[in-house]
Amino acid sequence: MPDSAPFATSDHPQAAERLRVGGFTRLTTIDYPGELSAVVFCQGCPWRCRYCQNGDLLDTTAVESLIDWADIRAFLRQRVGLLDAVVFSGGEPTVQTALGAAMRETRALGYRIGLHTSGAYPERLRPLLSLIDWVGLDIKALPEDYTALTGLPDSGERAWASLALLLEAGVNLEVRTTLMPDWTPDYLRTLSQRLATKGIRRYVLQACATQRALDPHLPGYSIMPRELVEVVDPTAFEHLDIRGL
């Protein structure tokens, strides 16, 4: 539903039916570490990140190709004991007020719950924490540099507030950063050191794919990603993963 609606969780038996689903992956081994999972791609996102690869999921009001939650529920009931987890991704899942109800239904079937989020809504994330087993959080940049990436002021403060909330709650957490083509080694060093200082244990660095990027003018790398990641201290994290390089 539109983001202008007030956010609240609901136990009404039909609440989950309102979840707007723009895509569904029936089986994946890479979206929840160590678990066989399905992925629910929630429709809608408030940000317009330059490197976004899921442009078809951005429009909150899109109606074409939506998947009924009832169909996903039926699939998950059939896969009990065969799948371990269900990941809610997007878009930005916390845009939608029906997310909590869908998570509760899924958890009641015995699945672990994963969440991929940009951290855009820390106030909406808080009431979901008791339902979530694992979170993949995008930290896109230092807080003061978010607006150039997302197009919205205060987005950096909100993402880093979500990071603090997840760390305080002790949720199993993976932080991901996409390497922007114009970053310098010093910038990535500063960002990674700040995250390590905050206590991030699992950190993922991934290359910026420009072929399907939302911003068609996104430049190529002036410094190759492999050279960039060399400045990140691998001993600062329990697990450091490099993807797509």
From TrEMBL:
Cofactor: [4Fe-4S] cluster
CDD domains in alphabetical order: Radical_SAM
Keywords, ordered alphabetically: 4Fe-4S, Iron, Iron-sulfur, Metal-binding, S-adenosyl-L-methionine
GO molecular function annotations of the record: 4 iron, 4 sulfur cluster binding; catalytic activity; metal ion binding
Positions of the Radical SAM core domain: 31-245
Domain of life: Bacteria
NCBIfam families reported in the protein's UniProt record: NrdG2
Protein's name in the database: Anaerobic ribonucleoside-triphosphate reductase activating protein
Organism: Allochromatium vinosum (strain ATCC 17899 / DSM 180 / NBRC 103801 / NCIMB 10441 / D)
